[in-house]
Amino acid sequence: MEKFKSGFVSIIGRTNVGKSTLINLLVGEKVAAIANKVQTTRTQVRGIVNRPNCQIVFVDTPGIHKPKTKLNENMIELSWGAIEDSDIVLFLIEADSKEVGRGDRKILDKIKENKKKTILIINKVDLIKKEELAKLINIYKDEYDFQAIIPISAIKPKYKDVVLDEIEKNLKEGVPYYDIEEYTDQTLRQLAEETIREKALILLQDEVPHGIFVKVEKMTLKKTRNNEKIYVIEATIYCLRNAHKGIIIGKNGSMLKKIGTMARKDMEKNFGTKVNLKTWVKIKENWMNDTKFFTNE
What we know:
The structure is a single chain. By secondary structure, the chain is an alpha/beta fold. The chain has 9 helices and 9 strands. The protein has helices at residues 19-27, 70-85, 102-114, 130-141, 160-170, 188-203, 242-249, 254-271, 291-295; strands spanning 5-13, 45-51, 54-60, 88-94, 118-123, 148-151, 213-223, 229-239, 274-283. It has a 6-stranded mixed beta sheet with strand order 2-3-1-4-5-6, sandwiched between helices. The chain has a 3-stranded mixed beta sheet with strand order 7-8-9. Helix 6 crosses helix 8. The longest helix has 18 residues, at 254-271. The protein is globular and about 55 Å long. The N and C termini lie far apart (46 Å).
């Protein structure tokens, strides 16, 4: 009988390289917020993959960037900590890189420092020619002894098993850490907060999204008149200044309604129940430097 394997795999890379898209592809469920904005992921998000003889626990990390606030510093610490605590690192870079850039160099140095078993994932390969890809592979081959170098496009399902097979091959024997029915360690409350924030990131203007923080104040499972389950969720979107509050609410509440509708539909799909979502917008100046606020300490 084949022995069971398990382990923690951190996905690390610069901001906006496709880490959240990759974890959602590998897990087969939406566990991480995706938006075409930098610093979409603020916390460690775990996604669980159960295979016949293996359990892989993925840790999606905030993108590596230059910190400007306490929130940013906290995000970077989470990413470095994930490298240290994982059994395997998936180091994600973009296919159109011409060299090892400053951000990727920092990550490489951390991997070398921890002597971590690492798989290099080159994302967005559909954007470049084969000759350019070959050059990039050679550059990174000279940098570190990777377990494997896998070129992919994280939006294409055909790459899912290629990556999972390579990870399973490199894991050690172990026991499952989570129940086989689970696909994330996030609570429904956290998933609700991330869903609302993702929709705000997608819909709002560039200067607003990174100044918002979503907190679910109440989340209750009730029953409708037809005896169907329904989650009643009350959430507050915090922003940095009054001008931002106006943009988030929109004319006659139109933007807030749009955010709420998109988030509710996503939650109903993910939770498998009806959702009644109520949202408010409040100002909390300088919350990004208030550690107690964003870490819920």
